């Protein structure tokens, strides 16, 4: 039996594929009672299993087939089918580097701005963007080293 993780407001819950489809069908039926319908412009399914067998007929909502994805972005985080966060970290590093670069001439290179203010802005913008949602990551030593090196490089740049 295949199992899926279903994200709801309180936690990630493991359900079988059949249970997930029953839940989605029940939600669809309930929305129709209120004159609403599920927007199925770009429905996607992300399988995170060792199995390479995917049956397309298992994944339909209101008669529309779901697309199979190797990764997708949800609330600014990239979720990958292999469960690895290397791509997510690289994406975050690139995004934060762009933010950092935009602030170089406006803030980091200004001598009249105190280190205390620069530190607060660094924590508020750079670190919060880099580490948003990191409490849900499974982080390995090499990834910690990558993040640490990134942060140290930018802190050295700030203090010159």
Order of helices and strands: EEHEEEEEEHHH
Q: Which band does the percent of strand residues land in?
A: 15-25%
- Care to count the β-strands? 8
Reported for the largest beta sheet, the result is: 2 strands, antiparallel
- Oligomer kind: single chain
The strands making up the biggest β-sheet line up spatially as: 1-2
Shape: elongated
Number of helices: 4
Overall average residue pLDDT: 76
How far is the first residue's CA from the last residue's CA?
57 Å
Percent in helix: 40-55%
Low-confidence stretches: 1-12
Total domain units = 2
**Nearest-angstrom radius of gyration?**
21 Å
Structural class: alpha+beta
Organism: Ridgeia piscesae (Tubeworm)
Protein name: Reverse transcriptase domain-containing protein
């Amino acid at each position: 039996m295949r199992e899926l993780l279903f994200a709801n407001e309180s936690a990630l819950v493991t359900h079988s594929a059949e249970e997930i489809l029953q839940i989605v069908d029940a939600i669809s039926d309930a929305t129709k009672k209120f004159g609403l319908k599920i927007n199925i412009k770009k429905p996607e399914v992300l399988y995170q299993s060792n199995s390479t067998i995917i049956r397309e007929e298992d994944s339909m909502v209101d008669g529309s087939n779901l697309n199979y994805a190797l990764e997708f972005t949800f609330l600014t985080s990239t979720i990958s089918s292999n469960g690895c966060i290397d791509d997510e970290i690289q994406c975050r590093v690139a995004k934060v580097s762009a933010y950092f670069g935009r602030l170089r001439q406006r803030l980091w290179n200004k001598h009249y701005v105190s280190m205390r203010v620069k530190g607060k802005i660094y924590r508020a913008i750079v670190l919060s963007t880099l580490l948003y949602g990191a409490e849900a990551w499974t982080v390995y030593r090499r990834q910690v080293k990558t993040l640490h090196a990134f942060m140290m490089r930018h802190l050295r740049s700030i203090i010159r």
